[in-house]
């Protein structure tokens, strides 16, 4: 079901946490609300679920405005960061709870619980208590409970935050698989860009209660709307260099990147260079010195202090032989640079 | 395991030595109730069940039977336990979770009352009871006892509610359950250890209450075991000290039994939370 937020506003007392937020999630789409801690992701999610009262704007499930509908009557499934399983009930009772509350017959509940348990692959755990499950299994139970009554939207609040790295990778693809198989409209709240990029059709990047950019993961990475978006996506993250664009594009440290091209005459600005666009033979050479090298196995991460000032990151296949302290004259792929005004707007 | 245990021995020995006088006194009390002892001697010289005759016949000719007294005490303790637990259960939930007007004031008042020497209110309570026509009735004493116990009960239960994750209730609400259903099916089972502990605690507190029945129900009719015991000592007609000891044991037995049976549950009240 299509979900629309129109001028959604939320206040806590005197502080406005979300001010006039617009968001459209297409039917069957999975969208990520990505942003730093405290930007209002959970608040938005809980308002969609009906757990927070809305202070302004509309929330549409399909054509129906649910802003004043109680949480019980909204038909959303929600997975909390700590899973919020009912500790005194078995897995089957946990999953069946939404149906039991709705007064469905035990045979029907049993049938639906079994089928959803099959979907999230926990068939053999149905008689256990939550305390007897691993984190990943609890996660699956929470997902099953959220899905069992076929909700209009599935809401996931940092569902992977409590899992270790390996399980997180596994559950990432599991959640996405289940979402695609059920074709449910889903919103994933996360502050992990990898999660957002790997699981979702689109990402809505948030900053202090506003959506800064909303687009597909690849588009957001390759074409960030401003400095904030560019700095948020990418790991290792983008490096920024102060520069001045006259005829020539000249770094604040004095080195030149050649003709300024479309940036000519812009004056002082900031350049964003992703680590994969800086390295041997990638473009106009800059003199610098390696100050840090980290081995990541398949590749090495370098930090290079440019002569005259400025620091860039580079990521190169392992075995380059370059050591900390070495002088390098690596180049920058000028055509892949991002330029930002001093205020952070994309140029 | 063994060396670990051994290191406790000095402490155990010291504690045993310190509590020995009390234990010996209790043992003697028990022995005294079933034996006869010549005056001036401490070694018993005969066995008798005479001191336990109060079980089958009233102690004073026109007085109540021990079973009527025990019944009164039981009613008093049970009513106290049930009402205190019931009110604490709902009031504490409201204080823990619902954003209601005057919540802060209420919580503050609770803490003050918790620490307040409530017995100093006895004169006011006496006047109120008399005005309401509840003076010298068991109902009146129960009401006062409940009122005095509630701050403790609510405070304890609030601690248990506070430890139930907020998300569990929110999950229940999005699962379509009403707030009341959420409380009954999802929250209550998780504060159940607290509920059991509070029930037992307030029962014991009611069972051993002495001052309130003494002051607020001094007449013969609604007497409970505690006040009756005091009366036996004061009464010159019953000069039998062994009888007094036997009645005391009779009075203490339920308490001992409850402690032995519910030890684990009672410890919960200090844990203040549910485990997974
Ligand atoms: N119940 C509340 N009362 C007052 N302020 C609140 C309340 N809940 C959230 N806030 C404030 O609203 C802002 C957004 O909170 P929210 O929980 O939505 O952040 P978030 O993006 O989910 O962060 P995180 O990644 O840490 O979970 C924060 O500044 C927070 O302090
Ligand atoms: Mg959050």
Please give a structural write-up:
The complex is a heterodimer of chains A (347) and B (276). Chain A is an alpha+beta fold and 347 residues long. Chain A has eight helices and 21 strands. Chain A has a six-stranded mixed beta sheet, sandwiched between helices. In chain A, strands 13-12-11-14-21 form a five-stranded antiparallel beta sheet. A four-stranded antiparallel beta sheet of chain A has the order 2-1-4-5, covered by helices on one side. In chain A, a hairpin with a 2-residue loop joins strand 11 and strand 12 (248-251). Chain A is elongated. The model of chain A has no long low-confidence stretch (mean pLDDT 93). Chain B is mostly helical and 276 residues long. Chain B has two domains: 3-54, no CATH class; 64-267, Orthogonal Bundle (MetI-like fold). Chain B has helices at 2-6, 9-34, 66-97, 103-115, 122-132, 138-162, 166-174, 179-187, 192-207, 211-216, 225-234, 241-271, and strands spanning 35-36, 46-47. In chain B, helix 3 (66-97) packs parallel to helix 6 (138-162) and helix 11 (225-234) runs antiparallel to helix 12 (241-271). The longest helix of chain B has 32 residues, at 66-97. Chain B starts with a helix and ends in a 5-residue tail after the last helix. The structure holds adenosine-5'-triphosphate and magnesium ion.
Q: What is this structure, in a nutshell?
A:
Chain A has helices at 41-49, 91-101, 106-119, 135-147, 165-182, 193-199, 217-222, 227-232, and strands at residues 3-12, 15-25, 30-34, 56-61, 64-65, 76-79, 153-157, 185-190, 202-207, 210-215, 239-245, 248-251, 256-259, 267-273, 278-279, 288-295, 299-306, 311-317, 327-328, 331-332, 338-340. Chain A is α+β, with helices and mostly antiparallel strands and 347 residues long. The A-B interface holds A 46, 49-51, 71-78, 80-82, 84, 86-88, 97-98, 101-102, 130-131, 145, 149 and B 165, 167-168, 170-178, 181, 186, 189-190, 274, 276.
């Amino acid at each position: 079901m299509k979900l629309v937020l129109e001028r959604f506003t939320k206040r806590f007392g005197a502080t406005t946490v979300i001010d006039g937020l617009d968001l459209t999630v297409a039917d069957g789409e999975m969208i990520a609300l990505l942003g730093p801690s405290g930007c209002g992701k959970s608040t938005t999610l809980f308002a969609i679920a009906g757990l927070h009262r809305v202070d302004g704007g509309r929330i549409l499930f399909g054509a129906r405005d649910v802003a004043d509908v109680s949480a019980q009557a909204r038909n959303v499934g929600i997975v909390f960061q700590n899973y919020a399983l009912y500790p005194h009930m078995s897995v089957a009772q946990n999953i069946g709870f939404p149906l039991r509350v709705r007064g469905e017959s035990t045979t029907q509940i049993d049938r639906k619980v079994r089928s959803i348990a099959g979907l999230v692959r926990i068939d053999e755990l149905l008689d256990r208590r939550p305390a007897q499950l691993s984190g990943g299994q609890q996660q699956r139970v929470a997902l099953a409970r959220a899905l069992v009554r076929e909700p209009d939207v599935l809401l996931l609040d940092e569902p992977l935050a409590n899992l270790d790295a390996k399980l997180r990778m596994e559950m990432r693809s599991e959640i996405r698989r289940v979402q695609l198989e059920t074709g449910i409209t889903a919103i994933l709240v996360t502050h992990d860009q990898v999660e957002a990029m790997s699981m979702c059709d689109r990402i809505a990047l948030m900053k202090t209660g506003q959506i800064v950019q909303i687009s597909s993961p690849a588009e957001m990475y390759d074409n960030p709307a401003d400095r904030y978006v560019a700095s948020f996506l990418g790991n290792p993250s983008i490096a920024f260099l102060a520069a001045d664009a006259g005829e020539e594009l000249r770094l604040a440290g004095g080195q030149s990147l050649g003709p300024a091209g479309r940036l000519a005459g812009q004056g002082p600005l900031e350049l964003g260079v992703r680590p994969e666009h800086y390295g041997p033979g990638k473009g106009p050479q800059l003199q610098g010195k390696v100050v840090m090298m980290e081995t990541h196995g398949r590749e090495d991460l370098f930090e290079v202090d440019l002569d005259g000032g400025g620091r860039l990151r580079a990521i190169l296949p392992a075995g380059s032989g370059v050591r900390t302290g070495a002088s390098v004259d690596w180049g920058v792929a000028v055509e892949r640079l991002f330029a930002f005004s001093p205020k952070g707007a994309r140029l | 395991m063994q060396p670990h245990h051994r290191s406790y021995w000095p402490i155990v020995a010291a504690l045993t030595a310190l509590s020995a006088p009390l234990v010996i006194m209790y043992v003697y009390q028990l022995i005294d109730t079933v034996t006869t002892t010549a005056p001036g001697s401490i070694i018993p010289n005969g066995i008798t069940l005479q001191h336990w005759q109060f079980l089958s016949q009233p102690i004073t000719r026109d007085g109540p039977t021990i079973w009527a007294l025990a019944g009164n005490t039981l009613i008093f303790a049970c009513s106290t336990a049930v009402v205190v637990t019931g009110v604490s259960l709902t009031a504490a939930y409201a204080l823990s979770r619902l954003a209601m007007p005057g919540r802060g004031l209420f919580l503050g008042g609770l803490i003050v009352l918790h620490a307040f020497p409530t017995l100093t209110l006895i004169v006011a309570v006496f006047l109120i009871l008399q005005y309401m026509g509840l003076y010298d009735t068991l109902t009146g004493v129960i009401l006062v006892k409940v009122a005095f116990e509630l701050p403790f009960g609510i405070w304890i239960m609030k601690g248990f509610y506070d430890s139930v994750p907020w998300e569990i209730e929110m999950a229940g609400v999005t699962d379509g359950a009403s707030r009341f259903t959420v409380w009954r099916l999802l929250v209550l089972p998780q504060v159940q250890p607290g509920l059991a502990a509070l029930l037992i605690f307030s029962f014991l507190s009611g069972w051993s209450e002495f001052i309130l029945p003494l002051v607020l129900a001094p007449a013969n009719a609604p007497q409970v075991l505690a006040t009756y015991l005091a009366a036996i000592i004061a009464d010159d007609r019953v000069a039998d000290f062994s009888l007094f000891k036997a009645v005391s044991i009779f009075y203490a037995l339920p308490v001992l039994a409850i402690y032995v049976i519910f030890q684990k549950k009672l410890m919960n009240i200090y844990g203040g939370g549910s485990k997974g």
